[in-house]
Write a structure and sequence with these properties.
Elements: H1 3-9, H2 47-52, E1 60-61, H3 74-85, H4 93-98, H5 130-133, E2 135-137, E3 140-144, E4 150-152, H6 157-169, E5 174-180, E6 187-193, E7 209-210, H7 215-225, E8 233-236, E9 256-259, H8 260-266, H9 269-279, H10 282-291, E10 306-307, H11 315-322, E11 329-330, H12 332-343, E12 347-348, E13 368-369, H13 373-388, H14 393-396, E14 407-415, E15 420-429, E16 436-444, H15 452-466
Antiparallel strand pairs: 1-10, 2-3, 3-4, 5-6, 5-16, 7-11, 8-9, 12-13, 14-15, 15-16
Helix pairs in contact: 6-15, 7-9, 7-10, 7-13, 8-13, 9-11
Length: about 475
């Protein structure tokens, strides 16, 4: 019997565990970089401070201070936007761009290769760490507020404990898993563990992880809107790990062809780079990223980093970013919400951490449109390829651990010095009636333990066990014809 099978079968016997022990960080030492590892956003009129912020010290803007530049201060906004995008200040073109939510990163985006932001991430303050403060009362997790009032969390204690224990038992250097109910936004688990830095808290809400190929979900949505269909084929050669400018051009050496759907499932970098180059503009990709809440705050009771995305104007860099090689960062909470957009027929639903007061249940919400239902349906079909025939096929076919009708996207990328291997999975299940959406991230050192795809599958499997399908009420046969 395999080790993880024994581990999970024993999970029910484990006590309900919550990771605790947050360390209160010091106050911010300077304007631009906060002591909790996030980048604070300069207020309108302080563009020079934003430009001076060191892009290598962090990868996320704190949600509590993520105000967009003031559209009325055109000169200041243009300078600030140019500093963020790494260009020279134009005569107001970037000022108008910066006035639109999410179109320009609120702060300089760190270089993934030169200064990975995970290297400087700090723990959440104890006051903000609601999971660390939560106590178990009557089978529910509650948090005491100022004045003694208690509020019940949406977190499922059993699911939270099971996922946390998996991360602990495998001694993951850095790991986090988020599970939520897509139709309502109820967050069911915010599990985390860091064997490399046991004092570190708040990983589910920290955008210090390169988005890697998870960004192909955003690129895929933009391509579908541009008229590319899931069946559209593109031919290629090479480009599995690195893409050169020659790969963007059609060539007699292009001996293999994938449809867009197959390319999503197999995470074919060169296909996404070529299609980005042929069908997308910097404006269309920026707008799709902004609609998916990159470079924008996500309202949540736990301060959540802004997921930064630098969408460059240079042709080859834009194609690279569309393929998942850009300077784009994602928090696990945001990753689950990205998956939930497809699950919700293209609608964004804000995450919820507190149960509503009173007897009324939390019902599905309308949400804000991100994609049309038709585009969301096509995107979901493409994400299904990942599980049925693509990069997650083997994990999801493991005997005894299958998750039926799951869809998702994998992502992987590595830092060189020191070596860190990032592996992602985001997805939801079941495909046609989604009950849970998940995101899982594992950062391994050279000694691999588990990867994000395996953890993501377990988050889906265990989440579905805790969120059973509603029982359909049918009238007995004897009642047929009676009114």
């Amino acid at each position: 019997m395999r080790f993880h099978r024994r581990l999970l079968s024993a999970a029910a016997l484990l006590p309900l565990v919550l990771v605790i022990g947050a360390t209160e960080p010091e106050q911010p030492a300077s304007v631009g970089i906060s002591e909790d590892g996030g980048v604070v956003v300069a207020a309108p009129g302080t563009a020079s401070q934003a430009a001076q912020a060191d892009a290598g010290t962090s990868g996320a803007a704190t949600a509590s201070q993520g105000a967009q530049p003031d559209a009325g201060t055109s000169g200041s906004a243009a300078v600030s936007a140019a500093a963020v995008l790494g260009g020279e200040s134009p005569d107001g073109g970037l000022a108008a761009l910066a006035a639109e939510p999410g179109m320009v990163p609120p702060v300089p985006v760190p270089s993934r290769e030169k200064a990975p932001p995970i290297a400087t991430v700090k723990p959440l303050p104890k006051s903000a760490d609601l999971m660390g403060r939560a106590t178990l009362e009557g089978g529910k997790l509650v948090v005491k507020e100022k004045g003694g009032k208690k509020k019940q969390l949406t977190i499922d204690p059993v699911l939270q404990a099971s996922l946390t224990q998996i991360l602990r038992n495998y001694e993951t250097p850095y790991g986090a898993a988020v599970v939520l109910e897509p139709s309502t936004g109820r967050v069911l688990a915010l599990a985390e563990h860091s064997a490399a830095r046991p004092e570190l808290r708040g990983l589910p809400v920290r955008a210090v992880f390169p988005a890697a190929s998870i960004f192909k979900v955003i690129t895929g949505g933009a391509l579908l809107e541009a008229g590319v269909t899931p069946d559209t084929e593109e031919c290629f050669h090479g480009g599995k790990r690195r893409i050169s400018e020659k790969h963007l051009q059609d060539s007699e050496r292009d001996s293999s062809c994938y449809s867009l759907a197959v390319a999503m499932g197999k995470s074919a970098n060169v296909i996404f780079a070529k299609l980005t180059n042929k069908h997308l503009t910097v404006d269309s990709l920026r707008r799709m990223a902004a609609r998916f809440r990159f470079n924008r705050e996500i309202e949540f009771p736990v301060p959540t980093d802004v997921s930064l995305a630098a969408i460059p104007e240079e042709t080859f860099s834009l194609a690279n970013t569309g393929a998942g090689f850009g300077d784009v960062y994602l928090s696990p909470l945001h990753g689950a919400l990205v998956a939930a957009v497809a699950a919700n027929e293209g609608r964004w639903v804000d995450p919820i951490l507190f149960e509503p007061e009173g007897p009324a249940p939390l019902l599905p919400v309308e949400g804000e449109p991100v994609l049309t239902p038709e585009v969301a349906k096509d995107l979901t079909a493409m994400l299904e390829e990942t599980v049925t025939s693509g990069t997650a096929r083997a994990v999801f076919r493991e005997r005894g651990f299958r998750v039926d009708d799951a869809v998702g996207k994998t992502g992987s990328l590595a830092d060189r010095e020191p070596f860190r291997d990032y592996s992602w999975f985001v997805g939801f299940a079941p495909k046609d009636n989604p009950r849970v959406a998940v995101a899982a991230i594992i950062v391994n050192d050279p000694k691999w333990r588990i990867r994000g795809t395996w953890l993501g599958r377990e988050a889906l499997r265990l989440g579905l066990e805790r969120m059973p399908a509603p029982v359909e009420m049918t009238a007995p046969a004897s009642a047929a014809g009676k009114h």
